[in-house]
Amino acid sequence: MLKRYLIPLTLFLALLLTACQGSEEKKAEKSTKKSDAASRAKQAGYLYGTVKETMDGGGYTYILLEFDGRKSWVAVPPMKVKVGDEVMLYPGQVMKNFHSKSLNRTFETIIFSQGAVSPPMEAKASNRSDMAAQAHSGTSRVEKKDVKITPASGPGAITVQMAYQKAKELDGKQVVLKAVVVKISKNILGKNWVHCQDGTGTEKEKNFDITVTTKASPSVGDKVLIKGILHKDKDIGAGYFYPVLIEDAEITKLEK
Is 84 left (phi over 0), alpha (psi -120 to 50) or beta? Predict the structure, then answer.
């Protein structure tokens, strides 16, 4: 009788042991993948970690991210994320004592990021400068639009493509161009960061989109006249690098 029950019991224990071993192996594999992802992210300069808290407000998603052994608040364009998610984000500008009016909350330190790296496992930029140029140059993160607009004329008049072609010559000079607003990030470092295109340039050459900083608040789709100072190879720190940037521009909305 004892033998009759001993064999099934032995089989059950063997299966239980196998299941436990499989579970431990899966945990170990998951831990290894997480470690590898964190290592690649750190090497490339990305922010990688676990979401500990999140909220939305004022056109941003705020994420309390635990990474590199510490917790930091990161603000990104609206994205779906929940507590417990593992995310990889582009680096960004660090701001001290930032007050969010929509949340009625002051963050002692917060990082403003362009958003999530997609897909996460492709954090393999060869070096930080290459990664920064790709993330923040204003070209690779914005797709080329089908834009038709009459170029500006007169002193300092250029096109987006010319801004890249003549960046060295125009560095530090005032330029004028007509373009269409294709993307805007508001109230970062006290300015609005506007992506503009005029139909010139190509995706291959990455010279079809230009970033403009301004106090003005145009809307996506607006045709605008831009007057500002062009800067070549503008590095504002924390991974933000722009081959061409037009700063402190006056932006006037044009008639359709």
Answer: left
